[in-house]
Amino acid sequence: MGKATQDLRKEHEAILHVLKILDQMFTSTLDATKKLQYYSEVVNFFRIFADKCHHGKEEVYLFEELIKKGFHKESGPVGVMLHEHKLGREYISMMNKSLEAKDLAGFDTAAAKYSALLRQHINKENNVLFIMADEVLDETKQDELFREFEQHEENVIGHGVHEKLHAMIHAWAAEFNVS
Ligand SMILES: [Fe+2]
Ligand SMILES: [Fe+2]
């Protein structure tokens, strides 16, 4: 497994962990105000970490490299992944609108769609696309991509925010008993 795809797999673990926490938030008996507060923190995590940072690494660097190797941008595995990232952004915007309107039912509907989309998306990347990527990208290219990922991460979230997001995940996991 290459260094770049390994980094993305690690981030998938973090995203899946937060989706598990979100499942617990759905069924918790917290009052509406508290729930809205947690939901807005979680949506912020999806927007910054899952979309800007993680999907950014995939779209700007990894997928571009795969396209150079002959993958199509509009169809096939890369085309499908790009389409799903776009759909994910639409669900994030639906979740944000529901939060602004304090509409918990609307939020739950959009969040359930987002969660189902991301789970199957990650599954396809881990088990199909990244395996193909490991076959076509040599170690030097993977190392180069990994360095670009680190720079991207620094540019879009920065060290301070990264630490803050991790601290938030720990706090949610403790509050909602998710290991
Ligand atoms: Fe992706
Ligand atoms: Fe991914």
Could you say which overall geometry the principal axes of the C-alpha atoms support? globular
Radius of gyration: 17 Å
Helix content range: over 70%
Question: What's the architecture, going by CATH?
Answer: Up-down Bundle
What is the rounded distance between the termini?
26 Å
What pattern of helices and strands is seen along the backbone? Answer: HHHHHH
Sheet having the most strands: none
Could you outline the blueprint of secondary structure elements for this entry?
Blueprint: H1 3-27, H2 32-68, H3 76-100, H4 104-136, H5 139-156, H6 158-175
Helix pairs in contact: 1-2, 1-4, 1-5, 2-3, 2-5, 2-6, 3-4
What does this structure look like?
- The chain has 179 residues and is mainly alpha-helical.
- The protein has one domain (3-175): Four Helix Bundle (Hemerythrin (Met), subunit A) (Up-down Bundle), CATH 1.20.120.520.
- The chain is built from six helices and no strands.
- The protein has helices spanning 3-27, 32-68, 76-100, 104-136, 139-156, 158-175.
- Helix 1 (3-27) packs antiparallel against helix 4 and helix 1 packs across helix 5 (139-156).
- The protein is globular.
- The two termini are 26 Å apart.
- The model has no long low-confidence stretch (mean pLDDT 96).
- It binds fe (ii) ion (2 copies).
- The site of one fe (ii) ion has 6 residues, from helix 2, helix 3 and helix 4.
